[in-house]
Amino acid sequence: MSGTAQIGITGLAVMGRNLARNFARNGFTVAVHNRTTAKTDALVEEFGDEGSFVAARTPQEFVAALERPRRLVIMVKAGDPTDAVIQEFAPLLEEGDVIIDGGNAHFEDTRRRERKLRERGVHFVGVGISGGEEGALNGPSIMPGGSSQSYESLGPLLEKIAAKAKDGAPCTTHIGPDGAGHFVKMVHNGIEYADMQLIAEAYDLLRKVAGYSPAKIAETFRGWNTGRLDSYLIEITAEVLAHTDAATGKPFVDIVQDRAEQKGTGRWTVQIALDLGVPVSGIAEAVFARSLSGHADLREAAKDLAGPSATVLDASAGAAFADRVEQALYASKIVSYTQGFHQIRAGSEAHDWNIDLGAVAAIWRAGCIIRAAFLDRIRAAYDTRPDLLSLLSDEQFATEIGAAQDDWRAVVAEAVRQGVPTPGFAAALSYYDGLRADRLPAALTQGQRDFFGAHTYRRTDREGSFHTLWGGDRSEAKAG
Fold first, then answer.
1. Pick the catalytic residue: 61, 152, 185, 333?
2. Residue-wise over 83-110: b if at least 16 C-beta within 10 A, else e?
């Protein structure tokens, strides 16, 4: 078998299979391999007319089918299975070849693998792929890390299969070295968690306070999707809410158990944010909200706790409240993206990745789950001011969130008054108020730390670290 394939994919579950078809549809010859050869045969038999495939039954055949430099995509489960595949194929490769991990790997695993393979002259590229099964087939948002040399080899292929924004730009770019691509994908998923939680809270408020039916809320979301909230998640939310369960005739949303699952990238986002010292409170609340939903026994034990029950507003007041919810949702979404981009900046600085935040916003404009119209404006904000510390410091976003804040506050207050949990809206508003506060109560916290642990503090009137001797004379000494 001579090397005729420009790209190879091993691991032919749904994502791997669809990615292979995407490459083939775009004119590339694709070598395909799976531990279970029946999946390889089935792909070629069912989709062979979509392009050129080379079926390989062994790792040796697979590697031999690839042109130099070889580009080998791994599409298996993250963790040990990925390491096992790397160990199987790496000895068969030569200097300059490229291994690409297209799974949802932890970025530290990617950094470890990249270092190890670099020692033998093989490039390792951790690629974040967003868009699900449909995106893998028709054009995802692609976030590759790794060396600049690896992108020279791989980039033209990724740019061909990636989603295209409205201006025709491919939704992929070289994110940065080693684990940068998987780090950005992780934060993307964290923002996705927050976005979904905020949308769910908006739905809950419209139903319990405004008194809207799921069908009416679907109509409302369709209206919102024609304006500044235009996004994939708003679009599919309307579809889900409009769906009727065939077996019962009830709204689909009413026959689904209220327990949201998660695969782990949201948790990673929060864990790494803690390591970096970056406040991502909105993302964290979204992760914890999913966790709370899954503790059915805890919720059952607490269901009789005292508190108000939601009272539906009259039609006129309900419509006005729905308008305020739109404002709260938009403002909270801006905060979620603000926190996510802050974390990307912090990760970039910590690992010397030099990530272009404007470019990240640009490749999220199509293909990915969080694609939204206002990403064009986020891209423009960072392109205009690459040193922009916060999206809330951008004049246009600051003006919009300022205009929304009265309604935002009213929604959170009404939710509290009526006993409807809105952890996402409330956390976003608290973050906003925390940023704009002249002085935070952290001064008292630091005083407490100095009292019980001699942790020292800094003064407002002079430089240096200080410690108060919290005995009878309360004397102060400058810490060394």
1. 185
2. bebbeebbeebeeebbbbbbbbbbbebb
Buried b (16+ CB within 10 A) or exposed e, 299-323: eeeeeeeeeeebeebeeeebeebbe
Q: What is the token pair recorded at 158?
A: 């990724």
Cα distance between residue 352 and residue 361, in whole Å = 19
Assign 341 to helix, strand or coil: helix
At residue 3, the pLDDT reads 79
**Is 0.90 topped by the overall pTM?**
yes
d(CA 129, CA 136): 8
- Is 463 in the active site? no
Residue 401's H or E segment, with its range, is helix 395-418
Query: How far is the first Cα of the chain from the last one, in angstroms, to the nearest whole number?
Result: 71
At residue 367, does pLDDT exceed 90?
Answer: yes
Residue 200 near residue 294 (C-beta atoms within 8 A): no
Distance between CA atoms of residues 447 and 435, nearest Å: 21
Residue 185 annotated to the active site: yes
Give yes or no for a contact between 46 and 108, defined as CB atoms under 8 angstroms apart: no
pLDDT tens digits for range 255-295: 999 988 888 899 999 999 999 999 999 999 999 999 999 99
Query: 128, 143 in Cβ contact below 8 A?
Result: yes
Kind of pairing between the strands at 465-468 and 476-478: antiparallel
Residues of the chain above pLDDT 70, percent: 99
Residue 354, Cβ density class (10 Å: 0-12 exposed, 13-18 middle, ≥19 buried): exposed
Phi, psi (rounded to 5 degrees) for 378: -65, -45
Pairing of strands 457-458, 7-10: unpaired
**Residues in CB range of 344: below 8 A, 6 or more apart:** 183, 184, 187, 355, 357, 360
Hey, what amino acid is at 468?
Answer: T
Give the closest residue to 220 by CA, choosing from 203, 196, 245.
Answer: 203
Quickly list H helices, 262-394.
265-276, 281-294, 296-301, 315-351, 357-363, 375-384
Q: From the candidates 192, 201, 326, 400, which is the catalytic residue?
A: 192
227-259 per-position pLDDT tens digit? 999 999 999 999 999 999 999 999 999 999 998
| pLDDT for the residue numbered 262 | 80
In the chain, what's the furthest Cα-to-Cα distance?
Answer: 87
| Dist CA 401 CA 405 (whole Å) | 6
**Which range (159-168, 338-347, 460-469) has the least confidence?**
460-469
